[in-house]
Amino acid sequence: MTALLELQDLKVHFPGRGGRSAPVTRAVDGVSLTIHQGETVAVVGESGCGKSTTGNAALGLAPVTGGRILFEGRDLATLRPAERRALWQQMQVVFQDPVSALNPRMSIARSIAEPLVINGWPADKVRARVDELMELVGLNPDQRDRRPTALSGGQRQRVVIARALALSPKLVICDEPVSALDVSIQSQILNLLLRLQRDLGLSYLFISHDLSVVRHIADRVCVMYLGIVVEEGPVTEVFAHPHHPYTRALISAIPRPDVSRRDRGSRILLKGDLPSPLNPPPGCPFSTRCPKAMPECSAARPPLEQIGKDRQVRCIAPD
Amino acid sequence: MSLLEVTDLAVAAGSLQLVDGVTLDVRPGEVVALVGESGSGKSLTALSVIGLLADSLRITRGSIRFDGVPVHGAGGQDMADLRGNGLAMIFQEPVSSLNPLMPIGAQVAESLIVHGRASAADAAQQAVRMLGRVGIPDPERRAHQLPAELSGGMCQRVMIAAALISRPRLLIADEPTTALDVTIQAQILDLIRDLAEEEGTAVLMITHDMGIVAEMADRVCVMYGGRVVEQGDVHDIFRQPRHPYTAMLLRTIPRLDHPPKQELFAIPGNVPSPRNWPQGCRFKTRCDRATAQCDATPALSEGAHRVACFHPLSEGMT
């Protein structure tokens, strides 16, 4: 089976301020991942780990310094601009904040219709398609002339999802799609994403800092720390038996809505802050906070190694 | 004897009610979580207690007593004394809550100096000690740095140090970890809990995260639509929620022990804005137990586990 999206050793480096000698920020420093049709791959990690930059690079919104991005086996870098644009129709995005993603002066129908209009759809077809999309995401087509400000946060995110689906993409990159929503609304939107995937065979690249949400919606998870993947595998296995000390700490840090778990011994508390991506520690970037760090850890960056059937971990002494 | 007693508090912006009859209490040394979604009135309740409501907002009803003394109506010097001696607050955004032009040591020391509790030199020394206690490495040197030289997690530690240096009896924490990464959040929650335990400080923790409530709180106060809908011991709230909103909220959270990719329980409808609050029970439009009776406003029941509902879940139902 050909992968839908494949990132091979993707690198996004941003030049520092102050000319050629300034330090380079290695926002993404060699990320590889594969998404098949109908699959959800989540990228998780804390701020500055490069998860959003990874998604942006796939969308052409961040400069690719190295590596390859393949969509259905075709290398984006080798395509002519027209071909690349056609291919990007297959790849859409839903961002965190539905307020800034929608033009407040446009009716929601016009916002949803925009990709269709740009692609030269005739007016009558546009109208029918917009109605269809609104129903698909659980909006009443009677609301088509309303402005985004007249809608709640959850409804606005439905509008953004409808617009992303207008051109029937195969892949939707969801960057923190429920983080700005109220708790009681999050589950509505997660259910919608799950249903759309089932009905339309969509694939998601799901970027999130919220591990409970990721555990619920993803098939596979890719844990990032300071620009690199430290662990990757099926979501249930990674959560049940994390191999990388960072993954373990991350999972144990999630506050759980469970009063029987109030003993503190079960939590791994990491010391210190995330190091600056401008100046990452040598060797394993997690070594400065790792409870199991050894002198060898700061000597060289460990390779991402296969563990078991389909898991990978980047640690010289995995759990 | 309660340390903080809020009774029937109402806050309005002009004719628009935003908080509508909140009653809650915090006892010495306990952690009370005030939970709610956007527009529930949880933050305005906290700001009313500490006297920091925006000028456009007014307390229109009710009373707030701290250590038996009325707070609401206390103006000028009285309120300043209260903030110096009994009450302190930390906010969600540590970076914007600190003065960007003032070294962090001076910001931590400020309340001691302003309230005449220490000389400048003594306050500076105490500030360095306090910075060390909240886990700032190398506090002597760091005390001279500006907030911009510190990470978000470090800035939140500075704010906690500034709040706790005057040994308040009640710390109000408004979403203190929402802007932080999860591994840093765990550090800050542990820090708040340890310091509160050591000093016997009571904490009123405002949050939307039921996970944080379960791990931190002794008692819980659930707000919806400007009112308290349920209040009780944290174990009772999680094991036997009685208000349909609390019960539904707990069911809607994705959990690590659930099978993945299954439909989650979802509360229908939207969180109503204060402009669109329904008559009577504010949750009735989203509630599967609502009847015509819910067009009237349910009162908060008495006792240890209180609920404001005409059709509460009976104990042992969930």
TrEMBL record, chain A:
One of its GO terms (cellular component) is plasma membrane. It is a peripheral membrane protein. The keyword Chaperone does not apply. Its main location: membrane. Gene3D superfamilies: P-loop containing nucleotide triphosphate hydrolases (3.40.50.300). It catalyses: glutathione(out) + ATP + H2O = glutathione(in) + ADP + phosphate + H(+). It is found in: Cell inner membrane. The keyword Electron transport does not apply. Keywords: ATP-binding, Cell inner membrane, Cell membrane, Hydrolase, Membrane, Nucleotide-binding, Repeat, Translocase, Transport. Pfam families: ABC_tran, oligo_HPY. Its EC number is 7.4.2.10. GO terms for molecular function: ATP binding; ATP hydrolysis activity. GO terms for biological process: peptide transport; transmembrane transport. Residues 5-251 form the ABC transporter domain. NCBIfam families: oligo_HPY. Belongs to the ABC transporter superfamily. Glutathione importer (TC 3.A.1.5.11) family. Part of the ABC transporter complex GsiABCD involved in glutathione import. Responsible for energy coupling to the transport system. The complex is composed of two ATP-binding proteins (GsiA), two transmembrane proteins (GsiC and GsiD) and a solute-binding protein (GsiB). This is Glutathione import ATP-binding protein GsiA. It comes from Paracoccus homiensis.
Automatic annotation (TrEMBL), chain B:
It comes from the Bacteria. SMART domains: AAA (SM00382). Belongs to the ABC transporter superfamily. It comes from Paracoccus homiensis. GO terms for cellular component: plasma membrane. GO terms for molecular function: ATP binding; ATP hydrolysis activity. This is Peptide/nickel transport system ATP-binding protein. It is found in: Cell inner membrane. Pfam families: ABC_tran (PF00005), oligo_HPY (PF08352).
